[in-house]
Write a structure and sequence with these properties.
Helix 15 packs antiparallel against helix 16. This protein is globular. The chain has 3 domains: about 1-195, MFS general substrate transporter like domains (Growth Hormone, Chain: A, Up-down Bundle), CATH 1.20.1250.20; about 200-255; about 260-455, Growth Hormone, Chain: A. It has helices at about 5-25, 30-40, 45, 50-70, 75-95, 100-125, 130-160, 165-170, 170-185, 200-215, 220, 225-250, 265-295, 300-305, 305-325, 330-350, 355-385, 390-415, 425-450. The longest helix has about 30 residues, at about 265-295. About 80% of the residues lie in helices and about 0% in strands. It starts with a helix and ends in a 6-residue tail after the last helix. The chain has about 450 residues and is mainly alpha-helical.
Length: about 450
Amino acid sequence: MNDTKLGQRTLLITSAAVFMVSLEITIIALAFPQIQEAFPDTSEATLSWVITAYNIGVASLLLLSGWWADNAGRKKVFLIGLLAFAAGSMLAGVAWSAPVLIGSRVLQSIGGAIQYPAGLALLLSAFPPEKRPSAIGVWGAMGALAAALGPSLGGLLVEALGWRSIFVINVPVAVVAAIVGSRWLEESRLPDVPARVDVIGVPLASLGIGAVLLGVVQAESFGVGSPLMVGAIVIGLGMVVAFLVRSRRHPNPLFDLDLFSIRTYAIANALTVLFVMAFFSWLVTMPTFIQEEWGWSALRTGFAIAPGPLVAMVFSMRAGHVAERIGAAPILAIGGFAGMAGLLLQRVVFDGTPDYIVELLIPNLLIGVAAGCSFSMLVAAAMSEIPPAQFGMAGAGRTTIFQLGVAAGVAMGFSLTAGAETSSEALSSMHTLFLVGAALYGIQFAVFAWFFPRQA
């Protein structure tokens, strides 16, 4: 197979896979009210783990999966990840209880985490250095496209086939990609990969954060200040501390903590957490409010939410070209300002009545601008001063932090809005969410406007 054809085929397969995995973050928001109806005896806080467990699972295994792929073979690991993702999707589609559904999402996340770094490594190895930026641009755009199509596609599937279809639809895509990939992809490995690494450290940190999130999200059912709530938070913080100690002492850590001594990397990753918390807390709670309080169908809600992510995709495709001239920081400042303005506007005008243009569309478009200016540019800012020899580790670490930020955002969204029994309580909780999100976007604006290097 010639190099051009190999690159095109590798790009096709890996882009399809990243689209499928990224779609799971946004498509499920439209199905959440139907999932609640299917399991009425399960609290909303517990069901939020249908979303949160996926993000924590992916974050827990990304760095370990990258090492495994480099060691065992990227094609082999990529195909295993696709099949695990298909198995988790099928189990989620037939789940007969909430625990089974949450468990199937964990299996999905394992498949997603396994194939994600292996797919990127396969893509990089299939292109010469001068062609890699364009290939990565297409590959990365699939994630933005998935976010854009997630609400409308989710609405179509839920309306036509029910909530289970949003999981089952992954099965044929993953299986076909695995079959075709077994024929088209070429195996690659990284030489001199350590045979033994710290396989406990990074999952320990992710599970520790998961325990903290468990204590926060389940505060209402555990009881605020109860031994269960406090215990979960204390255990989680202890696991995070254990991760820090292990990473400092282990001869072959999966993640080098010294990367955080690079100012741009540390700041950009911290701001990544704030940005995704603001964005995803809004994205996963707004569809539920619209369906429950406005009485809109899943399909109508999906198309109502879609304009913002579509704007994000358009801005994201142009942001890289502009950043080549002025750096990522000014674009990220614009993104923070747009997100802050959008949520503050929504806080002022949102009174719970279904006025689409004023209460939803205009704030949604501003939030789309924020996303389009932020998703890819946060990657560029974080990686701007990383030595080439550490691209893999730093990139996997950044993606891990991103996924944990998404999980934290989902947890924040549900913890702020869960438990509302009346329309006025639901509206008040959304107002609180808007203000918290606006504050997070405001920090992003301030940091990148005044404190971040101009050309980074």
